[in-house]
Amino acid sequence: xxxxxxxxxxxxxPSQTLSLTCTVSGGSISSGSYYWSWIRQPAGxxxxxxxxxxxxxxxxxxxxxxxxxxxxVDTSKNQFSLKLSSVTAADTxxxxxxxSRDGLGAFGYWGQGTLVTVSS
Amino acid sequence: xxxMTQSPSLLSASTGDRVTISCRMSQGISSYLAWYQQKPxxxxxxxxxxxxxxxxGVPSRFSGSGSGTxxxxxxxxxQSEDFATYYCQQYxxxxxxxxxxTKLEIK
Lengths: 120, 107
Hints:
The structure holds two protein chains of two kinds.
Chain A: E1 3-7, E2 11-12, E3 18-25, E4 35-41, E5 48-54, E6 59-61, E7 69-74, E8 79-84, E9 93-100, E10 107-110, E11 114-118
Chain B: E1 4-7, E2 10-13, E3 19-25, E4 33-38, E5 45-49, E6 53-54, E7 62-67, E8 70-75, E9 85-90, E10 97-98, E11 102-106
């Protein structure tokens, strides 16, 4: 059974870069035709898709965040990562990593989520 | 960008009721639609994908229908554990977008 776990700082200062890592267990991140995504959810609000990476390294980003987002994969560590630059209070949210259930875009596996607060 | 209108935003119902949640797209997405259930403090869980295919392990009281622009999630006989927030999500085009959510509460 695939499991995902987010990790990273829970507090980031405004204008700095938010960095999170998702560690995958129960399977190799480079096996199969899956997409690995980041999704966020501000407190009391809905879900926002940030972007995704394929094991080949190809990426797709939400245009609303594209200029600030980088998603990368480290197959040797079975991890993928999110970097979001120039953060503001509006980036405060629970951040989830997720895997597609197949080669499409429905998310069959999710991490538990990690709260990132942007504050000085 | 594909805009999604999910309704209602709040739904009050009783155990044993049959309820439906609607999701309408600003343009056709074939059947590239998923439904999720989210409970407080937890990650969303996939219920249905490809508009009408039940994810493994999900009770058969959940069903999905629709294609193109109009989709529906139906819960046929509400159980106590079904009171939660539900989201639709399209994965036809980028960016993948979610509906605004429907909070299903006990009447």
